[in-house]
Specification:
By secondary structure, the chain is an all-beta fold. Helix content is 0%, strand content 50%.
């Protein structure tokens, strides 16, 4: 069955960096655009980055543009989110998702705090 497993979350200081990974299985990874969204209690879900099937086209929310980079390795069935210059407001649970299927993983917590 379809599986998306996120990892790499944790505690980071403001201005720091984290790299999230999402390992995919159970579907033809290279055929789908993949993305990351984040969720904070009391706030609407926010899609922060999306990559086309080959990484040739990407989308970023204005809130993360210039700080986050989405990439993927189709040979490893993995999508990444490199997060830099982290801010307190980046604190959230981050989920990777299959764009066309509205399917997402269990999420990984990112906390930005000094």
């Amino acid at each position: 069955q379809v599986q998306l497993v996120e990892s790499g979350g944790g505690l980071a200081q403001p201005g720091g960096s984290l790299r999230l990974s999402c390992a995919a299985a159970g579907f033809t990874f290279k055929d789908y655009a993949m993305g990351w969204f984040r969720q904070t209690p009391g706030k609407e879900r926010e899609s922060v980055a999306v990559s086309s099937w080959n990484g040739g086209s990407t989308y970023y929310a204005d809130s993360v543009k210039g700080r986050f980079t989405i990439s993927r390795d189709n040979a490893k069935n993995t999508v990444y989110l490199q997060m830099s210059s982290l801010k307190h407001e980046d604190t959230a649970v981050y989920y990777c998702y299959i764009d066309a299927l509205s399917y997402w993983g269990q999420g990984t917590q990112v906390t930005v705090s000094s």
